[in-house]
Amino acid sequence: MHFLSIQRIFGVLLLVFSITQIPPALIALFVGDGSTTAFVSAYLITMLTGLLLWMPVRRRSDELGTKEGFLVVALFWVVLALFGALPLYIAPHPNLTVTDAVFESMSGLTTTGATIMVGIDDLPLSIRYYRQQLQWLGGMGIIVLAVAVLPMLGIGGMQLYKAEIAGPVKNSKLTARITETAKALWYIYLGLTLACGLAYWLAGMTPFDAICHAFSTVAIGGFSTHDASLGWFDNQAIETVAIFFMLLAGMNFSLHFFSLRGMSLRPYFADAELKAYLFLLSVVSFVTVVYLYITNVAPNWPEAIRLGLFQTISIGTTTGFAITPHHQWPGALPIMLLMLAFVGGCAGSTAGGIKVIRALLLYRQGVREVIKVVHPNAMIAVKIGRDVLPSRVIESVWGFFSVYVAVFVFMYLLLATTEPDLVTAFSAVAACITNLGPGLGEVGSNFASVNQIGKWVLCMAMLLGRLEVFTLLVLFTPTFWRQ
Q1: pTM of the model
Q2: Is 449 exposed, middle or buried (0-12, 13-18, 19+ CB in 10 A)?
């Protein structure tokens, strides 16, 4: 293990991250909202720490191995959340505790969108902007951004990219060089953000709200500059823009890349995961709309379609925006939507959940096992599109699913020891490990009521969900630390 090279990487990444404190500092200085000192202090602390780590080992040039890649990614998300919490803790308003500041920072960077803040409309403008910026940075993964920068500093990035982009297709590259891959992803990410912000502005948002909500929409984060989320605007044009860009952000970004490169929609039509993604959202949206109408939650069909379609896509893509308190809907509807969040978006997207491709593989493997009960000697292949998947891929998906469920149960039991309301405990863990944000019960609107210990448990759940479990859990195995 090349610990000095790891120290060098941490130093460089903290120096890069310190720059992100400048935009909110300028906003605070311009509007005079009293948070300038907090952001300047956070910038100086982060920058000086980065320099202290980088300077003594700046000439190290060891190549990163797989172990170093996993360690850097897992630990840096923890470090990033701690340093990202500095301005939230230092700022006189909202006057957060250490636990609350770290929770908000972790929620932002992991694009979970669970918030402990009440009275967001009254927060300083710079703080409101900063929360949205955290989600935008975390959306594609700040490590992927660093991959495009680190090679210029003599630091290889392939292992970082593999550890950050988890999933069945994580080892595929869009371009021959990993640096070009990271740049391509960020160009698409930036392009979608700009298009989303412009669309929000044309739909009726102020430029400030348009930029902030574009950050959290494309990142599939769900933070808003208002307590009522997008419901504050009460504008169907804005809701339509949100639906469109949430759907795009929930798709595999490689599809956007290949479509743009070939100037063709064929990559979308040929992708089996995308078809399953749209089919699942369509079916659940239909059920939700009908349920809302027949239970008189919506007074007419247009309102039922508006509420049902928006909330299904928001929750199904794990964004977490709200235009109505959906956690108060009757019957099993809130539970069904929460279960949908466990599936999440497509692999290679900014969405959370186990990803549609894994759910699709689990379903097809289940169908195969049912058929083999009747025809035990039959040779039945599991396919995605026209490709027959090797058994090792199926095994890895089942392994991921079993570990994911086990981790969820463990986190739920842990939180249930401190949270007397079991529905709240269950949905809080579910909302955090899927990176959804809003839950049910007392955490339907915010997580302010969760106790201090519970918030640290949920921080771990967010991190596990963001890194898709294995990247973090592998650090706790003896095998990882053996030479």
Answers
A1: 0.92
A2: middle
